[in-house]
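Task card 7
Instruction: Convert sequence to structure tokens.
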Amino acid sequence: MQILGMMSGTSADGIDAALLQFSATSAGEFRGHWHFPYPAELQERLFRLQESDKVRPYLEMDREIGRLHGQFAQQILASGVVFDLVALHGQTVAHQPDGPDGYTWQIGSAYAVAQATGRSVAHDFRRADVVAGGQGAPLVPPFHAAWLATCEPLLVLNLGGMANLTWVPEQGSREPVRAFDTGPGNVLIDAAVQLLSEGNKRYDANGDWATQGQIQESAVQEWLAMDYFRRTPPKSTGRELFNARWVATQWSAWRHGEADFLASLTALTAASIAQAAQRWLPTAARMLVFGGGAHNHALLTGLQAALPDLAVDIGEQTSKIPSAAMEPLAFAWLGGQCLLGRSVDLQGVTGQREGVVLGSLYPGKNWSTLLNLREQIC
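Output:
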């Protein structure tokens, strides 16, 4: 086996590569060495980053988020539940996939999870799609198609912090799955509730606060004119665009009541989803809603009003999958695809150039057992 090792040291002067003819019974044989120097400007930027404190909080939080995931998984193991592989999405802290140097970053140490549980971990699912020219999100639509397809086309809406919408063709159809992030899901509503309640509330339970207000249509239309809502798919978004700062800016200029503000933000969320479905997706007779926003009655009422020809249903009532379980279940499925080395085709979703294997594998103590299970599955 020929293995190419690549290293960029603390000196940051460039990349060294060496070729090893690997052997399981000896140290192997050296086959060649190559060097690529970094541009001076890149080297200076690296030095500034290494010598600053900017990256340290992210690294500390990476460990903390990983430790919490590991402790929780360990509790599940201790309760008697058996699992062989952890599929770890992690916490998104940066997402800007556009351009040749686009990026997405999810923290949460896979190594901490493996240490806590003794199980192997599939992680870092999004970056391979970005490198392949995709948006890195949404990744769950192929799972929607695998689990929820019926004899007629279907829309699946995930209302997490951001909202993503999937069009699932009918069973047996050659039509590709289509999906994209429509914009905000719960993020603006939650940020407004926290702002208006001075941190005493985290979200608008059942949409009750918004229901007390009057929608200010002029504000909703002004917000809908934002560039993101006009962009054609493929597209994805995150807190870089829709966040608490944006909400605070809008509130500072608001001339109506608190409930009106929440009602209008809720209407914006519903209108942006409905507008996206009507502009960029084929028709369907039904929409299944998952995620935390599925329990916001005001939001679902707004969606139904904006899409009168569509039956808007809470997904868990039909699929028997709890609303909050759909995404982790989808990433468990993606973890299985990663273990099997299967490419996931997201060309009709994220805009990737070709299907790629999503995720990385970190071998835990059960790695040999897991490989045997993989052979049995294959």
